[in-house]
Each structure stands twice: as C-alpha cells, then as structure tokens.
Amino acid sequence: MSGTKLYHRHLLSLLHKHQHCSSAIRQIHCHFLVLNVGILALWNSIVKHYSLSAFPQDAVTLFGYLRNQSKPIFFDSFTYSYLIKACANLKRAHLGNQLHCSSTKVGFDYHVHVQTALVNMYMDCGCLADAKNVFDEMPEKNLVTWNVLITGFIKWGEIEFARAAFDSMPERNVVSWTGLIDGYTRKSRFYEALSLFREMFVGDGINNNKPTEVTLLAVFPSIWNIGCLEFCEMVHTYGEKSGLNVLDVRVMNCLIDAYARSGSIESAWRVFEEIGNAKKNLVSWTSMISAFAMHGLATEASDCYVKMEGAKVKPNRITFLSVLNACSHGGLVEEGIEFYRKMVEECGIEPEIKHYGSLIDMLGRAGRLEEAEKMALNIPSEIGNVVVVWRTLLGACSLHGNVEMGERVTTKIMGLEREYGGDYVLMSNIFCGAGRYVDSERVRRLMDDRNASKLPGFTLA
Q: Is residue 70 domain-shared with residue 154, that is, in the same domain?
C-alpha cells in the first residue's frame, strides 16, 4: 500500500476516533483544506459529523465550498443523505428541496437511502404532502422508509394517516408497533393504544417483534389513564420473563405508578421491593411515596420518605410535593409542616405554587385558617398563578363556615380574576350557610351580571 493511501487511512481513523469531538473534527477539517484533500470518504465523514451536530449549517456550507472547487468532488449517496439530514435538522425545507433536485439530477432519484432521507426531511419540516409524494414515487422501500413515514405522521398528530401506512406495511418491526402505540397515547386514544399493544404482544410481538423497554414506556401512560390492572399484570409478567425489569429501572418505576393508578397499592409496593436497593433511584422512591399519597396512606408515605433519607437519596421538589399531599389528605399537619421546613431550609428548594397550595390545603382541612391565610399572604408575587391558592383557602373557609375570612379571600380572588363562576358559588354558599340569604343572592346576581358561570375551574391536584 502506498504512503498516500496509508496516510488517508490514518486520517479516516482519526475522524472515527474523534467523531464526537467537535473541536477535533474542526482541526481535521482545517488540515484537509490545507492539504487540498480530494478523497470523498474523508469529506463524507466531516459532512456526517456536521449534519448530526449542533451546527448542521456547517455541512451545507462545506458542500457549497467543495462543489465550487476547480476540481469538484463527485458526491455519492452518502453525501446527499447526510446533507438532507442537515436540512431536516435546520428545518429548512427550501434548502432541502434544492438538494432534492440536485440529487435527482445526478441519478439518486431511485436510491432508497437518499429518498428515505428526503421523506424524513420533508416530514421534519412539516411538508407532509411532499413527504408522501416522495414516498409514493419510490420504487423500492425498506422498513426504515415505512417507519420514517409513520413516525412523521405521528409527530404532526396525523394518527389516521399513520395507521393507514401501518396497515399497508408488507412487514413490521418493533419500531413500527412502538411508534403507532406512542402516537395513540399522545392523542389520548388510550384504548386503541392498549388494543394495539395486545395485538403486538399476542399476535405478532412474541414471535417476531418482541416489545422492548421503549414499547413498554410508550404504553404505560395509556395504562395509567385507564387504570387497567390487567395490562399492569401483563406488562409486569412480560418484563420479568424478558429480563427488562432487571435491566431497566424505568420500567419498574412506571409499573409502580401503573399499579397505584390501577388501584393496587399492594402490587405497587411489591414492585418497589423487587427493585434492588442499589438500583432504586429518586424516581423509584418518589413514585412509591406518590402511590401511598394517592391511596390516602399518609403514614406509609411519610415512613417511605424517612427510608429514602436513610438510603442517602436526595429528594427533589416532586418528592416533597408528593409527601406534602399525603400529609394534607391524611391529616398529618405537624409532619407536613416539618417536611416543608426540610424542603426549604435543609434542601434549599424554593417552593412552587403547588407546594404552597398543598400546605395551605393541609392547614385549611385542619381548621388552622389563620396560619393558612398568613402563608397565602406571604407568597412571593412573582411565583405566578397564586389565585389557585386563594381558591383552596376559600374552599377551607366554606368547609369550616368562616364567613369573615371567606369575604376577605373572595375580595382577594376578585382582584386577580373575576371570570370563574365557582368562586361566586362558593362564597354564596358560605353566606347561605351563615343565614345571610340576602348577601348570598347578591353574590349570585353579581355572577350572572359578569357572565362568570360557564368557565372551567382549576385544581392543584
């Protein structure tokens, strides 16, 4: 082998070795320019790196430079595929269309990889009709082509077109199934997502395309929203047999949530216990605390938090929100106040509106309305959406029949937002409960005058 070829092989080796290092690639790029390198394989590696990097424009710029040299390089399908990918990442359909024309002129109009890249580019840029036209004109399509079309439709919410393409596929793989399941889930069509998962699992998946951890993670939101214990058990069993439960703690964490939302706190706890202590992460602990809170098991949620501390796992704001909600619904006021103190003073976490809402709800349920009002008054103005906290306090005033505070709170709410009819109804009921029927009727008339009765409310849950 000649010295030149050895040197080129050395340069190619350097490119592969430093393919994830932008500064190194730029240095090699400059070296190529100085040496006036004309080897396409070397330039293709540079183009690939730029196309997939945070600066895909560099790939396009390099292409223009190389094409305008006195001894121009004749680009291959690899070059065009990655240049088109750069246009997809740039979301520049017009530039991609120019490359579409250029690639056609040099004979790549029937090349499956170039055409697949074009389908992907048009989809990423939102040009769905152009993507479908390229797809329809392709004489040869592979699985990647079909999956690009399906995932593109799903990305833009065109689930019916995605399903039609899926049903037309000559063969499918796990990417096809997972993509469509995820699409149905994102469109809140949970029953269809679960039906498709069952079809994959029973009919096609076990023999040919076994569900992966990505498939399971895609279907979990549908299980949560429907609360289907049967699917929890199906996924749990499959995860055990396939080894996914051991390999991916995300699957186990999602199972905890799924079981809890499906009404089986015992199964959620069993899954939590199955996770090895070394693998339990913050999400595992927070999911279990949230599961206890969801089922009104305040003491168990508090105890779980203490165990988490013992395991040296640092909580985050979601962990604290879960345990505060548990204390609120379980009446553990002093424990909740202590958790709040730990969050702010020991962990240095700034409370968000939901933390304030949970604490005020807890104090309000316990009848400690003055403390709740004081906390509401001290919420920083920049925190945003504070009206939901005052509504929580108004609900507590109604629960305990505190007319005087109810009036103050209602005045506060009206200064923030007047359009929600529920505020008027609640204050009217407070007046009615205190025998102040004239004031109750006055508030009802005010609600009608402001046409405030038909707007939806908000919740901190």
A: no
Q: Is residue 76 part of a domain?
A: yes
Reading the block at residue 182, the tokens are 């995820």
Buried b (16+ CB within 10 A) or exposed e, 220-244: bbbbbebbbbebbbbbbebbeebeb
- My answer on whether 176 and 220 are in the same domain is yes
Tell me the DSSP string of 167-214: HH-SS--HHHHHHHHHHHHHTT-HHHHHHHHHHIIIIIITTT----HH
pTM for this predicted structure: 0.81
The H or E element that residue 152 is part of is helix 143-155
Query: How many domains does the chain contain in total?
Result: 2
In a domain, 408, yes or no: no
Dump pLDDT digits (tens) for 86-112. Answer: 999 999 999 999 999 999 999 999 999
Whether residue 63 sits in one domain with residue 108: yes
Measured CA to CA, the distance from residue 457 to residue 413 in angstroms comes to: 13
Q: Which residues contact 429 (CB under 8 A, 6 or more apart)?
A: 398, 440
* Count of beta carbons in the 10 Å neighbourhood of residue 410: 22
Helix axes 265-274, 249-261, angle to 10 degrees: 170
DSSP line for 334-366? HHHHHHHHIIIIIS-PPP-HHHHHHHHHHHHHT
How far is Cα 460 from Cα 391, in angstroms, rounded to an integer?
10
Rounded Cα–Cα distance for residues 177 and 180 (Å): 5
- Write down the residue that tokens 């080129």 correspond to: 8
136 and 8 co-located in one domain: yes
- Same domain (yes/no): 156, 124: no
The answer on 235 and 120 residing in a single domain is no
pLDDT in tens, 112-169: 999 999 999 999 999 999 999 999 999 999 999 999 999 999 999 999 999 999 999 9
CB atoms within 10 A of CB 142: 13
If asked whether residues 152 and 131 sit together in one domain, one would say no
- Domain end point (choices 140, 169, 194): 140
Residue with tokens 């096809």: 176
Are 179 and 154 spatial neighbours (Cβ–Cβ below 8 Å)? yes
Q: Is residue 257 part of a domain?
A: yes
Which residue has tokens 């080897």?
39
Domain that holds residue 185: 141-264
122 and 203 assigned to the same domain:
no
Contact present, 251 and 244 (Cβ < 8 Å): yes
Last residue of a domain, one of 101, 122, 140: 140
